[in-house]
Amino acid sequence: MEADILPSRICGTCTLCCKVFPVPELAKPAGRWCQHVAQGKGCTIYADRPQTCRDFYCQWRFSDDLGPEWKPEVSRFVLSIYAGTNSLAVAVDPGTPTAWQQEPYLSSLRAWSEAALAQGDQVLVFIGSKVIAVLPDRAIDLGEMKPGDRIVTLKGPEGYDVRLKPANA
Q1: Are 79 and 88 contacting, i.e. CB atoms less than 8 angstroms apart?
Q2: Residue 45: other Cβ atoms inside 10 A
Q3: Domain residue ranges of the chain, discontinuous segments joined by +
Q4: What CA–CA distances, in Å, run from 59 to 4, 66, 130, 159, 163?
Q5: What is the pLDDT of residues 7-64, one digit of tens each?
Q6: How far, in Å, CA of 81 to CA of 103, rounded?
Q7: What angle do CA 52, 3, 55 make, to 5 degrees?
Q8: pTM of the model
C-alpha cells in the first residue's frame, strides 16, 4: 500500500491523525492528542509506533483528485477507509466539529455518499465516539458508537435510512 502513496503527498507539518483516531495499544481515545506526537513535526516513537498507527493510511496521500484543501491540517479532518469495509471515514478534529459541513467538503461528501450507497457502502463522519452518516440529501446523527456496534443502511421507498445497531442487539 505504501507504494501507492503519491510522492508529492507528504505529511510534513500535519499530525491530525495523531489526534482524531483512537490508539488502543496506548489507551488513547479518539479526539485527544497522542502523548507521543510532536505537533507540527511527527511521531516521537515512529520506529516503534503501535500496529494501529502502522496500519493507518491517510486517503489524501493516495488521491490526486483531492486538492491541497483536503490535506487534514487544512480541512481539519482525516479521510480514510473505515476498518473492514469500503466505506469512507471522515475523522473530524473535535476542536472544529463542523469543518466537514463547509464547502467544498459537504457537496463532495454527499456526492461520494450517493456513489457509496449504490455499492452498499457509506460515508461516515466521526467526531470522537460520535458518528454521523452522510446521505446525498441529509446527514443522520447516529449518536455515540461503542465497540461492537454496527452501522446498518436500509433502503426504502423514500430513500435511504441509516441506523446504529448496538452490539448486544
Answers
A1: yes
A2: 13
A3: 2-165
A4: 11, 9, 21, 28, 25
A5: 999 999 999 999 999 999 999 999 999 999 998 899 999 999 999 999 999 999 999 9
A6: 21
A7: 5
A8: 0.92
Q: Are 94 and 33 contacting, i.e. CB atoms less than 8 angstroms apart?
A: no
Q: What is the pLDDT of residues 96-155, one digit of tens each?
A: 999 999 999 999 999 999 999 999 999 999 999 899 999 999 999 999 998 888 899 999
Contacts of 37 (CB under 8 A, 6+ apart): 15, 18, 19, 43, 44
Nearest Cα neighbor of 125 from 104, 142, 108 is 142
Listed residue (116, 164, 120) closest to 140, CA to CA: 164
**Lookup result for grid cell 463522519:** 125
Full 3-state SS string of 56-103: CCCHHHCCCCCCHHHCHHHHCEEEEECCCCCCEEEEECCCCCCHHHCC
- CA dist list (Å): 50 to 1, 7, 47, 62, 73: 18, 24, 9, 22, 22
Neighbours of 61 (CB within 10 A): 20
Q: Which residues of 94-113 are buried (b: 16+ CB within 10 A; e: fewer)?
A: beebebbeeeebeeebbebb
